[in-house]
Every structure is written in structure tokens, then in C-alpha cells.
What we know:
Blueprint: E1 2-10, H1 14-25, E2 30-34, E3 47-48, H2 50-58, E4 69-78, E5 81-93, H3 96-109, E6 113-116, E7 118-126, E8 129-136, E9 142-153, E10 174-182, H4 185-190, E11 194-200, E12 203-210, E13 214-222, H5 223-228, H6 233-243, H7 245-251, E14 255-256, E15 262-265, E16 282-284, H8 299-315, H9 322-344, H10 347-359, H11 361-370, H12 376-380
Parallel strand pairs: 1-2, 1-9, 2-6, 4-11, 9-16
Antiparallel strand pairs: 3-5, 4-5, 7-8, 8-9, 10-13, 10-14, 10-15, 11-12, 12-13
This protein binds flavin-adenine dinucleotide (FAD).
Amino acid sequence: MREIIDNLVIGGGPAGTAAAIQLAQAGKGVTLLERKQEPHDKVCGEFISWEAADYLTALGIDLPALGAEPITNLRLVNGGESIEAALPFTAWSLSRRRLDAAMLQRAELAGVKVHCGAAAKNLQRRDGYWQASVRTEGSSQFYTELHADSVFLATGKYDLRQWQRRKARRTDNRIGFKMHLYLSPNQQMALQHTVELHLFDHGYAGIEPVEGGKANLCFLINKDVFHRCGKRWPDLLEWLRRSSPHLRTRLTGAVQIWSQPLAVYGTPYGYLHRSQAGPIGLYRLGDQMAVIPSLAGDGIAIALYSGLLAAELHVRNDAERYHREALKRFRRPVRSAQIVSGLLSTTKGRRLALWLASRKPALLAGVIRRTRLQGPDQLACRRSASPV
Ligand SMILES: Cc1cc2nc3c(=O)[nH]c(=O)nc-3n(C[C@H](O)[C@H](O)[C@H](O)COP(=O)(O)OP(=O)(O)OC[C@H]3O[C@@H](n4cnc5c(N)ncnc54)[C@H](O)[C@@H]3O)c2cc1C
């Protein structure tokens, strides 16, 4: 079966849905494919920065109504030392399952044709249009072919076969894990409104409250550690408790919500799509455009911004500007976040970060600002979803 459409969005994460909503609101016909049939969890710290929250609000997503937890404090923990700082703006914490589902619903409301359980398998430029083969979940047969004028590639960490991202010079040797927990009442109280970052050799862990009285534990550790733990989750958790006494306290009496953690390996942190003149009518969004180190940057904000920027330029018939503009916008935060996370991976760097946080908070705030798309000052007066 063949279907001719105007705009095809591949991927129903924040990047794809932001672009789809914005395009539909501008009166464009949009079809969105999401390979998973049902709302699903993703490896993510689930920290929604003030920038991301601003874009979401402008897209019609009501974070408090979805049960998102307001986050007003950052606690940095290094070994036995910890330091707490008030965030300059309220950030939020919400499970990706709930956030992504809400965005897909919002897209449908805006008039986007959303197909869940539909994966794009091939994408090629042929006879002046984009041709994608689509397969439904659970079926081995291609059921339809879509012919589109423009394609918004928002598949996150999954590369489409002919459209792989450039390989990083060095593969990131760390594995990301995520588990939702019920903390004991005391620990839940201690974590209220707080994102806690535990820094240690071989990686870091983040823990914060999410909706429904749960907490999200998300951490990155070297693959070697995982192997040394016999690739067993309980041993890995024990390793984590030993690496951070503070985290040991947090996890005392905690109940795991899932039987197994989610995991991801080889995230290409620091990736930037450099080709400024891509094939006409193909926009790379979110993690397909730039991958910011998760310890120091906001992947969700970048994803949303890229979707909004691409949609805006597409509506203005200014497609050729997109990759150039996105690269210009994302290069500095991605590079800065790489430097910060590199620094925090060393013992001296971690000590310096805690020292700066206690003695020179303004300097630290300046460093953090460089890892963001825009400073909070500019954000305060920003109320539109449109980034250009
Ligand atoms: C360990 C870790 C912690 C992180 N923590 C944070 C954090 O706390 N805060 C933050 O802001 N960012 C965080 N990030 C980054 C953030 O998760 C990503 O940058 C963000 O999800 C990117 O959004 P996206 O829309 O590009 O991709 P995704 O959110 O991955 O969405 C892509 C979607 O495309 C779908 N898809 C894939 N292939 C196909 C196909 N062929 N056809 C149809 N659909 C397809 C997938 O099912 C998926 O739903 C973290 C990342 C990692 C690895």
C-alpha cells in the first residue's frame, strides 16, 4: 500500500513530537511514526530543566497537571562530602513514560496523524520525494510505503540503516542504568524537591523524586565495573552503595518497582551532526542532531528546541538554514558539558567542583550556564514556543 503525505516525523520522543505539534499548529499535514505500541520507559534522569519546561508549557504540556515533581535544589555529593544549592528556577521531574505519552496525545489533539507501533525501516530519496517503508509491531511484513516531501528524523539513539550518525572517535565505555524505586518515608522526605548527583570514580548516579511517590535512580558506570560485578544487578547496586555512602543511606529500605533495570550502552556523548547542507527536506532532530553529556546537560531541552527550530524554518521555507543554525546553537553547550563531565570524572575535578559550589557559586553558575542553550535571564522573558 502506498500513501502520499506532506511531512513525516519518525520518532515519538520530545524532538519528534515537538516538531509535529508545531507543524500541525501551523496548518501543515503531519504523520508521526513511533515504533513502540505503548507508552514506555527510557534510560533518562528525567530531570526537566527550566528551559525544557518552558518549551513544554508553550507546546501545551501542563507539567503540574501530569503530576511532575517540582525540583528546586541541587545536592552534589562526592564521597562523604555534600553541598546543596538552590536552583535559579524551578525545574521538574516526570517519568519519560508519562511525558512522552502526554506529548503524543498533544500531537494528536493538534491534528497530527500518530501511528504507534509503526517503525520506519528504510528511508530513501527517490524521484524528488522521500520514501519510507513502515512495519507494524509484531509483523514481519512491510505494510505500507509512505511518500513524503519532508522528513523529520527523530529516532533518538536508534539510527536508521542508511542514515547512521558518524562514529565517535572513542566509544563511550559506560553503561547507563535506570530503576524506579519507592524510597523509605525518611529518605523520600530527604529527597523532596531535590536532584541529587553522586560523583565517584568510574561514573555518576542521579536520583530524584518522580510522580506518584516514586524516585528515579539513573547512573552511568564503566563497563569494566559491570563485568567485575558479574553483570548482576544486585552486585552492581552493592558496588554503588560502597562507592557513595550517602547513596547507601538513600537506598536503605528502598523497594524496586521493576524486576530488572533498563540499560543503554555506548551513548555517543559529544556527537554533533556537522553536515550543514544535508539532503533537501531531511531534518535531524534531538539525539540525531546532538548528544549532550547527561551529567552536565539537558538532552530533553535540546531535543525540544531542535524540533521547534526545524518546524519553524520549514514553515518559513527556510529549510537549508536548519542544520547550520542547530549546529551553531548546540556546539557550545555540548562542548562545555563535555568539559564539565570530563572534569567531574577526575578526583581533583570533583573536589574543585564542590569547592567552587561552596566558595564561588556565581562562577559555578556561569559554568553551568555555558552548558545550557540560553541563560535563565533570557528565559525569564521568554514565553513563546518558537525559537527563532
Ligand atoms: C543515562 C542518561 C541520562 C539522561 N538524563 C537526562 C535528564 O535527566 N534530563 C535530560 O534533559 N536529558 C537526559 N538525557 C538525554 C535525553 O534522554 C535525550 O537527549 C532525549 O530523550 C532525546 O530525545 P529524542 O526525541 O531525540 O529521542 P528519544 O527520546 O530517544 O525518542 C526517540 C523515539 O523514536 C522512536 N524510534 C526509534 N526508531 C524508530 C523508527 N525506526 N521508527 C519509528 N520510531 C522510532 C523510539 O521508540 C523513541 O520513542 C539522558 C540520557 C542518558 C543516556
